[in-house]
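U., I forgot to send this yesterday:
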Amino acid sequence: MQGKAQDVLTQAKTHAARWAAIAARRVHRGDAVGALLFLLATTVFAVVSLSMMGSNASLSFYDLLRLQNGGSMQGAMAGRDSGAGIYALLWLLAVAGPLLPSLLTHRAARLGYFAPLALWAIALAGVVSQVRELMNATRQFAGFMGNSRSSRSLAGDMASNLWDSLSFGFGFYLSLAIAVAFTVRGIAVLRRRA
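Result:
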């Protein structure tokens, strides 16, 4: 029985090595480098940094996706909160999508170049939705304090201070540049092979 398990493991290693070699030969080097950089830009580098009341918080693109899935800010910073849910699948598709045209001969595989930009659009829509919720909460807070001019001014100041304490990190610019570059490449490939 142990010999049979060993044979299966050996065959699995052989097939995995063969498939990896085929993929390494077929994948366009620029696409592979771009996908790797997009992976790093969305997981390692900070996309947004927030500094309020003497504390700093840096979130990666993937952390923002986990927040959109219903996680908390503290959990996203510590990496122990809930996962990204469906956003994790979309993120994986955005990372691997630009490699699909090299690996598959289907015409639809060329649309993989647009996956990073689609993820950016989805994430941007989620962030805009969360900012709207925050602004509504600020207005409600002002309503609880009374409907005076000073309470509305306080709510506006709170929103302004939050926006002023926000800064975009290296991951923001790198992932956006890669998404745009893959989109341009995708348009060129679709025009060339049309």
